[in-house]
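Consider the tokenized backbone below.
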């Protein structure tokens, strides 16, 4: 009798251990990349393989230029909520509202620039990642499948828009896009605005001028100069066109959409604490 219950407890313990702490490792090939997966999440092998394959094909199918991804990329999956990130050969994914930012982070890794410098224009990197995630991936940060244009209209109406000269320039880019992990609510809110604004502006550029033109400013060091050469307009002129474009009835944030964006009200509550120098 005792041995039976001990056995049951032991088996149950092992199952719990396997379910929550298992470290499932496997590899698979998609296109020219071998993905080495370290799975700490409850997602199964085949669902991970399907999701990564779908993301790879969507990203590589959307871009026109030549990219040279690493021949092996390590992928880590975790169940808990934390900040996902990517380098050229490593992608670490945490869950956000039950989903992984697979398309977003994989786009950073696959479309990594030739040089590993920091200022390759965060606005273009993040804007494209969110644009692709919204188009091909699950609903995750920062817009949860809601049109970035609709959220951008709210930001604009609140007087919190970052001028494009600042968003796309290099002097403030670290503060806007990469605040320290232990930063306060206002910095997080500013980062969220930067992401939403980049997504809206990049989607506008791609829809209006095409992917090929956008890729000429993507992964470039001096975005502002490059934008002028590619689009024949400076940041102020492009800003005017873009804001006019998103100012339509179909891009007004509905109540239903508002509920889909977790934390929108929380971000908003910090708007008053954001330093004026970023938004004027
Ligand atoms: Zn990103």
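A designed sequence for it:
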């Amino acid at each position: 009798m005792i041995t039976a219950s001990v056995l049951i407890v032991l088996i149950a313990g092992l199952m719990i251990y396997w379910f929550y702490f298992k470290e499932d490792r496997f590899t698979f090939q998609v296109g020219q990349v071998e993905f080495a997966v370290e799975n700490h999440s409850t997602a199964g092998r085949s669902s991970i393989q399907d999701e990564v394959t779908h993301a790879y094909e969507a990203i590589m199918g959307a871009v026109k230029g030549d990219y040279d991804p690493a021949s092996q990329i390590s992928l880590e999956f975790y169940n808990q909520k934390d900040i996902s990130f990517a380098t050229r050969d490593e992608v670490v994914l945490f869950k956000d509202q039950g989903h992984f930012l697979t398309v977003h982070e994989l786009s950073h890794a696959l479309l990594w620039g030739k040089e590993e410098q920091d200022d390759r224009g965060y606005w273009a990197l993040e804007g494209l990642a969110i644009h692709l995630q919204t188009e091909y991936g699950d609903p995750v940060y920062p817009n949860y499948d809601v049109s970035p244009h609709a959220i951008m209209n709210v930001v604009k109406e609140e007087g919190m828009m970052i001028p494009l000269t600042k968003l796309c320039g290099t002097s403030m880019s670290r503060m806007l896009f990469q605040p320290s992990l232990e930063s306060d609510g206002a910095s997080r809110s500013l980062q969220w605005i930067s992401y939403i604004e980049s997504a809206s502006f990049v989607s506008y550029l791609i829809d209006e001028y095409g992917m090929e033109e956008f890729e000429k400013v993507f992964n470039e060091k001096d975005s502002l100069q490059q934008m002028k050469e590619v689009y024949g307009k400076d940041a102020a002129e492009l800003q005017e066109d873009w804001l006019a474009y998103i100012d339509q009835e179909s891009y007004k944030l509905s109540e239903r959409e508002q509920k889909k964006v977790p934390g929108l009200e929380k971000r908003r509550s910090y708007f008053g604490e954001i330093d004026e120098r970023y938004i004027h």
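The chain has a mean pLDDT of 93.
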